[in-house]
Design a protein that fits this description.
The chain is mainly alpha-helical. The chain contains eight helices and three strands, in the order αβββααααααα. Strand 1 and strand 2 form a beta hairpin. The N and C termini lie far apart (56 Å). The N terminus is likely disordered.
């Protein structure tokens, strides 16, 4: 990738906000990677396109999460734990305490799901602290023109996770209350049976708002943080150090808080799906 000194500010920003997209390019009637230099734009691919970098980093970090926790579990000791085991146990206890405080039903899936959501999103958010040009520069030396390494700055990733939670909400609502109970919950609240159309409208909007708000909250905060890092990278070298270090320190709180909020709201929504109104 060209440095910010040899391209305009708008080109630099646009480059960092472009995903490595692969899909069917209608104009050339072939499957291509995005290549803005040759006029192949992300919007040219239509629906059948995939953000390769988002998939690569999200799946890779998910595998790292599984490997790390499995390796610690295999070496766990009842004696004085090592620093890694102590850290992992602290995270597990933290998540478990939140689940016990919010979810008052019996479901063996909720705690592991909450742990996965919290750690996985935290790891994806954590990539935002990697200096903005390092990985794209290495990728460019390998012939890869674009590389976004923060999956949560891609709305496709955040919407994918949020709609997965949404399907679990619907699944457990039907499982716990039955189809008739789930439909009654949608149609008979809050105005009673004489206002069923109005009730359906309110409840369906509220139900769909849950995954959308989950996804857009995470995406919006991480995208804004990424944009600030990009803008800082356009400044003179001395100014980058003055501004990037305090912003990175503050951003540690942001990335942790966003992972926590996504986890807590997931627990709350699934608890509501189990509650009998």
């Amino acid at each position: 990738m060209a440095s910010s000194d040899t391209v305009t500010s708008s080109e630099y920003i646009s480059h960092h906000l472009t995903n490595l997209t692969f899909g069917y390019h209608e104009a050339s009637d072939s499957w291509r990677f995005v290549d803005t230099a040759n006029g192949i734009m992300p919007g040219d691919f239509g629906f059948w396109a995939i953000h390769v970098d988002t998939m690569l980093w999200s799946v890779g970090l998910g595998i790292f999460f599984l490997w790390l926790f499995r390796s610690v579990a295999k070496k766990v000791t009842s004696g004085v734990p090592g620093s890694t085991q102590n850290f992992i146990e602290t995270i597990i206890e933290f998540v478990d305490d939140n689940v016990k405080g919010i979810f008052h039903h019996k479901n063996p899936v909720i705690a592991p799901l909450s742990l996965t959501i919290f750690v996985w999103i935290f790891l994806m958010n954590l990539m935002d602290l990697v200096p903005i040009d390092w990985v794209p520069y290495i990728a460019a030396q390998m012939g890869v023109g674009y590389m976004k390494i923060v999956p949560t700055t891609d709305p496709n990733a955040t919407l994918g996770m949020a709609f997965s939670v949404f399907f679990l909400i619907v699944y457990y609502s039907i499982k716990e209350k039955g189809v008739s109970g789930f439909l009654a919950e949608l149609s008979l609240q809050p105005m009673g049976k004489w206002m069923i159309p109005f009730n359906l409208f309110l409840e369906i909007v509220g139900l769909l708002a849950k995954p959308i708000s989950l996804a857009l909250r995470l995406f919006g905060n991480m995208y804004a943080g990424e944009m600030i890092f990009i803008l800082i990278a356009l400044l003179p070298f001395w100014a980058q150090w003055v501004l990037s270090v305090p912003w990175a320190i503050f951003h540690i709180l942001v990335i942790t808080l966003q992972a926590f909020i996504f986890m807590v709201l997931t627990i709350v929504y699934l608890a509501m799906a189990h509650d009998d109104h």
